[in-house]
From TrEMBL:
Belongs to the protein kinase superfamily. STE Ser/Thr protein kinase family. STE20 subfamily. It comes from Lamprotornis superbus. It catalyses: L-seryl-[protein] + ATP = O-phospho-L-seryl-[protein] + ADP + H(+); L-threonyl-[protein] + ATP = O-phospho-L-threonyl-[protein] + ADP + H(+). The keyword NADP does not apply. This is non-specific serine/threonine protein kinase.
Length: 354
């Protein structure tokens, strides 16, 4: 309208040419302005797209960094939980093995004491139980014959009693758990054999004395017949002396048997006391062995836990280094760290907007 108003102000002859010129100039100017506007709009759009893209990238990086931090924290928590479970498992395993060892030794002590107490009932006098005259199952016949020949060596029977081998408690067996009964049977058998031997000696002594008396009387009568001397009073005196000698022999034999019986009973009592001492020693050795086992078990567990913790430190350090490198790569690159996720930006077409 402005161009048309300006042309109307001119003379009629100039209007047509000026109008055409003005219209061409106006059209060209309008096209120039449109091109500049479109170029500026395109530049503004590209700058806005760049800003939006950069903002989007920063948001994605921040989000993925946050996710990475959460993931690494979850991994730390997971590793810490695994390590705690491993340590707890090691502790529980150690306590279980230790308790099993304690229970095992407790049962051994209980069984040992029960068998020891069972062998002699309260109120029962020593060696009062009837025992069969059988060879002892603890020692061979050659050893028992040696003991029979030398009663004072009966204390060596304790060396054949099972239970202690080289200072270490041996496994408990039915034979080992009836030691006191076997010792009582052995002592009773020794006493019975001594009684039988003494009874045989007492039975043989009158026969020997009668035989010797007859022999001496015959020799005395023969000497009287040869020498034709001696009176009845001398014969009676000889007979009295022979009776006194026989009584003295019987008394001496009785005293010897009583002394042998006392010595044998004292020996049996000594054997029983020494067996009791050995049983007490076995109990003490069992306790000492248990203490040593528990101490060794604790030392091995502590050493194992120390080695486990020494190996755990490099694992923690390696894990932290891997996490630090991932964070450093993300901080340096400022790109999404997820390898499977790629940000795609579609360029804006200016022709479509127009």
């Amino acid at each position: 309208m402005m161009v048309k108003n300006e042309v109307e102000k001119l003379p009629r002859q100039q209007r047509k040419g000026n109008l055409k010129t003005k219209m061409d100039d106006f059209t060209q100017k309008k096209q120039t302005m449109e091109q500049e506007f479109l170029a500026k709009q395109k530049e503004d759009l590209e700058q806005a797209m760049k800003n939006i893209t950069a903002q989007n990238k920063r948001e994605i990086c921040d989000k993925e960094r946050e996710c990475l931090n959460k993931k690494q924290q979850l991994m730390r928590d997971r590793e810490a939980c695994i390590w705690d479970l491993e340590e707890r498992q090691q502790q529980e395993k150690h306590q279980l093995i230790k308790q099993q060892l304690k229970d095992q030794y407790f049962l051994q002590r209980h069984e040992l004491l029960r068998k020891h107490e069972k062998s002699v009932k309260p109120g029962t006098p020593l060696l009062s139980q009837p025992v069969q005259s059988l060879p002892s199952p603890l020692v061979p016949s050659s050893v028992t014959s040696h003991f029979h020949a030398t009663p004072k060596s009966a204390l060596q029977l304790s060396l054949f009693l099972p239970g202690v081998w080289g200072g270490v408690p041996a496994p408990l067996t039915p034979v080992c758990l009836q030691e006191r009964e076997q010792m009582q049977r052995y002592n009773q058998r020794m006493l019975e054999q001594l009684k039988v031997r003494q009874q045989q000696e007492r039975a043989r002594l009158p026969k020997i004395q009668r035989s010797e008396g007859k022999t001496r009387m015959a020799m005395y009568k023969k000497s009287l017949h040869i020498h034709s001397s001696g009176s009845a009073s001398e014969q009676r005196e000889k007979i009295k002396q022979e009776d006194k000698r026989q009584k003295a022999e019987r008394l001496h034999q009785q005293q010897k048997h009583e002394s042998q019986m006392k010595d044998m009973q004292a020996q049996c009592e000594s054997n029983t006391h020494e067996l009791q001492h050995l049983q007490n020693e076995k109990c003490h050795l069992l306790i000492e062995h248990e203490t040593q086992k528990l101490k060794s078990l604790d030392e091995n567990h502590n050493q194992h836990m120390k080695e486990w913790r020494d190996k755990l430190r490099p694992r923690k350090k390696k894990r932290e280094q891997e996490m630090f490198f991932k964070l450093s790569e993300e901080a340096d690159g400022q790109v999404p760290v997820s390898p499977t996720k790629h940000a795609k930006f579609v360029p804006f077409s200016s022709s479509e907007s127009l």
